[in-house]
Amino acid sequence: MFLMYVDESGDCGTNNSKTTQFFLTGVVIHESYWRETLDSLLDFRKKVKRNTGWRVRHEIHAQEMVNGRVSNNQNMPRNQRFVILRDLIDWLSTQDKIRIITISVDKQKFQDSSEVFERAWTALFQRFENTIKNKNFPIPEYKDGFEKGLIIADSTNGEELRKILRRIRRYNPVPNQSGIGYRDLPIETIIEDPFVRNSEHSYFIQIADVCVYFARQYYDPNKVVKKQGARKYYERLEPVILKEASRKHPLGIVEL
Predict the structure, then answer these.
(1) Running DSSP on this structure, what letter comes out for residue 168?
(2) Residue 127 has pLDDT above 80, yes or no
(3) CA 156/CA 9 separation, integer angstroms
(4) What percent of the chain has pLDDT over 90?
(5) Do the bridges between strand 149-154 and strand 195-197 make them parallel or antiparallel, or are there none, so unpaired?
(6) What count of other Cβ atoms lies within 10 Å of the Cβ of residue 255?
(7) DSSP state, 194?
(8) Which of 146, 188, 149, 150 is nearest to 169 (CA)?
(9) 255: which of 46, 122, 139, 211 lies 20 to 30 Å off by Cα?
């Protein structure tokens, strides 16, 4: 089974919103590799603790670390917090059992926030499904046949998320490549409803948080990110980005 940990950046609002785009990033790993990857991540966190004092149990939350608005920062200089974020990205880029999928939605193309939310999550579900079926995720050689997938998301609109996934399990119209007509391709591999968890209790959702934050900064960097030279942090993830998700973008970002 493949596990996909998901977080979002920006908001879905289409009126009076400070953002023009909404982002989702999924961090995907097969359950066979989950424990060894967790152990490696814990080793990384312990190294961070030795080098900076940032406790292993303290959440790595990109936006709050950049803004410096959380007590866990312990008066740590901003440039040191950026080093932690950069080092986490560099650790992730070496994890060849992980793949990353990012969805970018141009909110100006849609009329209301519910449509933005639905289109983003539907696209992510479809890419997850298609990649499992096409066997493009890293998987142990002894595995045979089609795998299943499970979604674990950071705090979001869980009720609406359930509705979307349940609906496209029954009816999922996908445009033909010719641009004419649709095919009905119901989702088959994603089991159960998405699980919604607080990122504070999941190291893997924290990874998704950092990835999606810097995906957003790749498009629209804020002043602090520019000053710290961190605009291209997302590009450092290239070794583990699932480029099959979108062959139209050099970093595989699915743009809607």
Answers:
(1) H
(2) yes
(3) 11
(4) 71
(5) parallel
(6) 14
(7) P
(8) 188
(9) 139
